[in-house]
Design a protein that fits this description.
Largest sheet: 10 strands, antiparallel
Order of helices and strands: HEEEHEHEHEEEHEEEHEEEHEHHEH
Shape: elongated
Helix content: 25-40%
Oligomer: single chain
Radius of gyration: 23 Å
Distance between the termini: 16 Å
Number of strands: 16
Structural class: alpha/beta
Strand content: 25-35%
């Protein structure tokens, strides 16, 4: 999501046109994440996805129409075999998608709107709990109007545009509803009990929590790390590579990495901003380097910790760590040997098993 919002900031700042398609409600089995967004540019290029296939093709066509007309729309799609099998949308679920036109000349943005998107990106980069609220007024179906937009944090409305920030009743309502999902990985569509300013019956409030991509800290810059970085980037992880050798922690070797750090392994973890959205993978060149990483990692709030190695290596290391005060409960949080047991032994296969396990942990946590 952050990449899409960054693109929106650039598009609005340049005075260009586009449209954003966002999943707002979803039920059942879907071919995409329930938090998917897609940006469609005036020339037809797109960033992101809302599921692919004929669903995405139809959303893309609706977005091109929104760019030309300047009118937002919200439409439901049935993806069940009974109702949509002939179209190929037989995943077994239903989804509702909002399409918002962006940019001049059909929806000339104010400086306030551009700043709202800038602050949305900044909050994600700073990992601050924030909700984007979008107030929608219905028109002739499937058309609707965006009559207000705002960012809500624990302190209330940070910035608003349209009626949000101007109409106190609506602002208070948006903040109250946003606080119910703040800090979670959620999207809510709320039907307002009374009409909003400038709207009528059926006004709705879309609430989306903003989350930065989870960070994978890869300790070790060897061949397995190269494969893990490649797969993890595809899965949407922010990647930081750590090694004590400059030749193994640099951007030329790891073009997928957002950051490469040369640090001694016995103090590297303590110098990193590890939080509940952090994933730590120890795949260094030897157990003497893995051990200090794990000893530090188990004392952090990292959501996932994994270490490569045989069961014999794990047993020997665990015994030493316990002698130095590491508890059984802390060690139980470490996935070792790392990855899902799919039987892989090549770097690529190991990478798939490791990232699959990280995704499993991430989705269960959500």
């Amino acid at each position: 999501m952050m990449n899409i919002l960054q693109e929106v900031v650039g598009l609005l700042s340049r005075g260009e046109t586009g449209a954003v398609a966002s999943i707002v409600t979803a039920r059942g089995s879907l071919p995409m994440s329930r938090r998917s967004k897609m940006l469609i540019l005036a020339d037809g290029a797109q960033r992101g996805t809302v599921g692919g296939g004929c669903l995405e093709a139809e959303v893309h066509a609706m977005a091109r129409l929104a760019i030309r007309s300047g009118r937002a729309s919200m439409r439901g799609f049935t993806l069940t075999e009974t109702k949509a099998g002939a179209e190929g949308l037989n995943c077994g679920g239903t989804v509702e998608i909002l399409i918002e036109p962006l940019g001049a000349p059909v929806a000339d943005p104010t400086a306030e709107t551009i700043e709202l998107y800038r602050q949305a990106v900044a909050s994600m980069e700073a990992r601050e709990a924030t909700v984007m609220a979008t107030l929608l007024a219905p028109e002739e179906p499937p058309d609707c109007r965006v009559i207000g937009k705002g960012l809500v944090s624990w302190k209330g409305l940070r910035i608003g545009s349209g009626v949000l920030g101007q109409d106190q009743r609506l602002t208070d309502l948006a903040v109250e509803e946003a606080l119910t999902i703040l800090g979670q990985d959620r999207v809510r569509l709320v039907k307002l009990p009374t009409p909003a300013s400038g709207g009528g019956p059926g006004d709705r409030l879309l609430l989306e929590t903003l989350e930065a991509p989870p960070t994978l800290y890869l300790f070790g810059g060897g061949h397995v790390s190269l494969a893990v970085a490649s797969v993890a980037r595809t899965a949407g992880f922010r990647i930081v590579v750590v090694d004590d050798r400059p030749a193994f922690a640099n951007h030329d070797r790891f073009p997928e990495a957002d950051q490469t750090l040369v640090l001694p392994m016995d103090e590297a973890v303590s110098r990193l901003p590890i939080d509940r959205s952090s994933y730590i993978v120890a795949v260094t060149r030897g157990h003497q380097h893995d051990e200090p990483v794990i000893e530090q990692a188990v004392r952090t709030p990292a959501l996932y910790i994994g270490m490569i190695g045989s069961r014999r290596k794990v047993a020997i290391m665990w015994r030493r760590l316990k002698e130095r005060g590491v508890t059984e409960a802390q060690l139980a949080h470490v996935s070792a040997p790392i990855g899902l047991p799919i039987g892989g032994d090549s770097p690529g296969e190991i990478a798939v098993s490791v990232v699959a396990e990280m995704i499993q942990v991430r989705r269960r946590s959500s």
